[in-house]
Input
Amino acid sequence: MSHSVTTVNPYTLKNIKTYQVQSKEDVMKALDKSDKAFQKWKLVEIEEKTELLYKVAEILEAKKHDFALLMTQEMGKPISESIAEIEKCMSLCDFYAANAESFLSDDIIETEAYESFISYDPLGTILAVMPWNYPFWQVFRFALPNLTAGNTALLKHASNVTGCALAIQDIFIEAGYPKDVFQTLVAPHETIEELIKNDKLKAVTLTGSEKAGKSIAEQCGNLLKKTVLELGGNNACIVLSDADLDKYLDEMVSARFQNTGQSCIAAKRFIVTEGIYDSFIDQFTKKVRALKIGNPEENDTKISILARPDLAETLKQQIDSSVKAGAHVLFGNDVLDAYFAPTILTNVSPEMSVFKEETFGPVAAIIKVKDEDEAYALATNSRFGLGTMVFTENIEAARKKIIDIPDGAFFINSMVKSDPRLPFGGTKASGYGRELSKEGMLEFLNVKTVLINK
Ligand code: NAP
Output
């Protein structure tokens, strides 16, 4: 096993920095320290904990451009989106600072007992295994509610964003969190198995691929440890004949192409009814053609490099096999190392890779359907369950479909996106459990019933 990890800028292909990898012993020591820190941290008053959230937000604001640049250099995200990601983390600080106390305070339940209530108690050390695609946001949306609720955290980030992982640890230290309440591990995922087996580790959250999710779920299942899994998706974007394209087309383009298409909740399958198909294709293609491609450090870049060349290779294979099965390349499909041009495929059908699998890059698969019924039937024909979006002027008809959508989210006239105030998570092969909002905060708490008679 390698003893160091070197981060590489996917755009310039230059090495950024080499980091020492921690040994298994060091990782186990970090767990001991985290458990010790928990014993004190859980007793700290909520006001003190929420005060620290404001400090985190101040640091994010003060160093916004440095953090954004680090993210862009490590994984190629266009800089304007990196800045927006840091700002979203700041809004998450504000949200939990304003609401944590009410989310966590005891719930009094009237019974015949003298007193009965629910106490929301922290569990202890939680391990977070995180991906590279939103290097700050994914970590903050786990860490802020959990630390504020009294848990302590160990972060095992994707190795290509090790600089971000360590910068996040520094933010918590600078904000004044007690030592070891949040620790970043620089360790390969093989080291994690030992950690999970230890009784001091109470639960695991993983955002990442289905394969990694299954492995974590299996290990934790055997030990009866709780997990939250945020995995892949192939969200459908239904465009019905009465959709307002003038108003929502930009939103639909962002839904697929933001983060250069490397988003779990992206609109990966556009299911378009025949009444609007020609004008949708015409206008959508014009918008995609106009996306500015280039250096991720330039402010107006909308599409840049993928985070790693192997991601482009996988995407290419998915497209090649779909084209062999009858898909038509309407636009794009140029590949060079980690660069993948924005691509539109038409004539897509359910047996093709680009329909069945998750495409993690700037590829829009378009499916033409007869009517609304066929559109919803195809949208829900998926192993995944992160979200579905529909664009239509008939809100009442769309509202009736809520019960039929088996996903974690159903957005009408909006792209599926995360929001601190709303729960976020999936069903089926997209995982289980929720992040954000009150629901996300309660995932790793002991919802304890207390009953007192006298
Ligand atoms: P990944 O390969 O699964 O890696 C994610 C994290 O899991 C990394 O820290 C990785 O560590 C670790 N990991 C990999 N295999 C593991 C295993 N067998 N056991 C334990 N940990 C393991 O995924 P990725 O390529 O970085 O991220 C893309 C995937 O994440 C996509 O499928 C995307 O849809 C999903 N995602 C989901 C959400 C959501 O909220 N639902 C959000 C963002 C991304 P190493 O780097 O050391 O391998």
